[in-house]
Structure formats: C-alpha cells, structure tokens
Write a structure and sequence with these properties.
Helix content is about 30%, strand content about 25%. It is an alpha+beta fold and about 300 residues long. It has one domain. A six-stranded mixed β-sheet has the order 2-3-11-8-13-6. The protein has a five-stranded antiparallel β-sheet with strand order 1-10-9-12-7. It has a two-stranded antiparallel sheet with strand order 4-5. A hairpin with a 3-residue loop joins strand 4 and strand 5. The termini are far apart. Bound molecules: fe (ii) ion. The site of fe (ii) ion has 4 residues, from loops.
C-alpha cells in the first residue's frame, strides 16, 4: 500500500477504499466532489511496467512543432485507437496519422514489436481505468475524455491547484495511476476553498468575486506561491504520499493542492462531466469558489 504521512495542520482528506467498498456505497462522486482524494485500497493495475522503460522519452528529434506538442501531451489512446497501420518491410509501420507515425518512429524507436507490446499494455490499462471510472462515478455523464500518458520524469513540481485555462463552469473527474516500478511521490496541501479562507482578508481576494476562478488560482499559485520560478513553498504544511507501482487514485486537481515531488510514468485520465449528473452540482469548482466569496464577505461585513 501507499505510504502516507498526514500533516496535522492540513485537513485529512485522503480516503482509502477498496473497489468492493466503493461499489457497495454506489461510488465516490460525492466524496471526490467535496475535495477528497480516494486511494483504491488493495488494488494494483496488472501492468507491463517493463515495456514503458524501453520507450524513448525525449521527443527533441521531432521537427514539426504541432506534432511535438501533441506528443508532449501524449494520449494513451494513440497506441491502440485509429486505423491499423500498414506493415512496411520487416520492422516498420506506416500510419495515416502523422502524430501516430511520429509516436511510432520516435517514442517506439520504429520498432514494431515494441509498439505492439506498448499497445497491448496501454489498451489493458485503459480498459481497467474505464472500469474504475464506472465503479467510482456510476451516475456521471461524461462528454469528453483526455487520456493522458506521462512518460517523462517530474521532479519537485511546485505546490499548485490546476488551472486548465478553460473559463467554462465545468466539472471534471480524474483517475491517476502510477505506471512505474518506482513509487510516485505526491505532496498534498490545503483544499482551494480552505486556502481562500486563509488568505481572503490579507490579500483582498474579494476582488476576484464573480470572475473566472482561474484568475485567483493564478494569483495564489504564481504571485503568492512563486509559480514555477521560486521554491518558497516548504513553508506550507502538506501531506506526503508515495504511491506504489500500479496504484490508482481519484481526485479533483483544482480542489486539492498537489505537488508531484517525484514520478516517472503515469496515467492521468480526465473526464469532462455534465454538471447535472454530479452527486451535487452545487459542489462544482466554480460554485465552491463563489460560496467562499459569499461566506467571507458576510463574515467581513
Ligand atoms: Fe497539477
């Protein structure tokens, strides 16, 4: 199981539940919407970890910027969705999609066997993660999935709440999985509404009321916490977690401050979900932010 070190000054929002327990209570949408991180207990993805270690992690060899950008935000589905490639010679493959071709040529080093092994592994993990989504969020009505595959090392990320640069009032559900043979280490800090309450008066957060919450996320993450430039964040209390190989967890990355302290390979699946299918639509991120504005403004007047 994951090693978890809880900090007494941060609310304990890390829940450990098995899939039968999650199924038994009809999912965990309510808990995740309230800003809990749910770690799936007694479960590991049955994954071919070794195949990922053989993939090329650098995409510097790709000249075309749009293709490089797409490979940087690699989607797991590129390995197994789309028209099957044509075989060329003994070793190579020819794809209709330029992105999939570059993925084969560079990430899979033009090796048909390696591509086939990676495809098999990622298709299996894809199906397992879709199953976990259905178990965890049985009522959700998703309209888009971004099935992101992270293959590059992440180290000492700053503590932050995600800003997706989308100003819609949307809801997301996320499933994460550690695809590496080493632990993936996360730190978790205050939930965004709690952080707002702590900073509200001193930093006049009232000026962000009625605006796109991303403005306030940016102000707190970048201007107050140093963004990606400075590293003062060790002053903030945080929980520490080392997720084991194949472990899977769920959470709303705008609601919970997080910091990937160390990680090699992971799946980050993000579903955009219709708000009216939420356990409580009043718990969508924008609504929680507006609620804190109302609460603080009432308290201050
Ligand atoms: Fe993040």
């Amino acid at each position: 199981m994951a090693v978890i070190e809880r900090h007494p000054d941060v609310k304990d929002f890390i829940l450990e539940m098995s899939l039968p327990e999650i199924r038994e209570r009809g999912g965990v949408a309510d808990l995740v919407e309230q800003g809990n991180i749910v770690l799936i207990k007694d479960f590991r993805l049955d994954f071919d970890f070794e195949v990922l270690t053989r993939l090329e992690k650098s995409i510097d060899a790709i000249q075309a910027v749009p293709i490089r950008r797409k490979l940087k935000k690699l989607e797991a589905t590129h390995f197994f969705e789309g028209e099957p490639p044509a075989k060329v010679g003994f070793r190579s493959l020819r794809f209709k999609s330029a992105v999939r071709q570059a993925m084969f040529d560079v990430i899979c080093k033009g090796d048909r066997k390696l591509f086939a092994q990676a495809s098999t592994a990622l298709k299996a993990s894809h199906e397992t993660v879709l199953g976990i989504f259905d178990t965890a969020f049985p009522e959700y009505d998703p309209f888009q999935l971004i099935a992101s595959l992270r293959l590059t090392r992440t180290l000492f990320e700053n503590l932050h709440w995600d800003n997706h640069s989308i100003d819609d009032d949307f809801h997301q559900a996320r499933v994460f999985a550690n695809l590496d043979i080493r632990p993936r280490i996360w730190h978790l800090g205050h939930r965004f509404p709690d952080m707002m309450r702590l900073l509200y008066e001193k930093h006049n957060l009232a000026r962000f009321a009625g605006q796109d919450p991303n403005e306030m996320i940016d102000f707190i993450t970048r201007d107050l916490l140093g963004g990606t430039d400075r590293m003062w964040l060790d002053q903030l209390p945080r929980h520490r977690i080392a997720f084991e190989p194949g472990e899977v967890w769920l959470g709303e990355s705008r609601l919970v401050a997080h910091q990937i302290y160390y990680g090699e390979a992971a799946l980050v699946y993000m579903w955009f979900v219709k708000v009216n299918s939420m356990s409580d639509p009043g718990n969508r991120f924008n609504a929680q932010v507006e609620e804190v504005h109302r609460e603080m403004q009432t308290a201050l007047t």
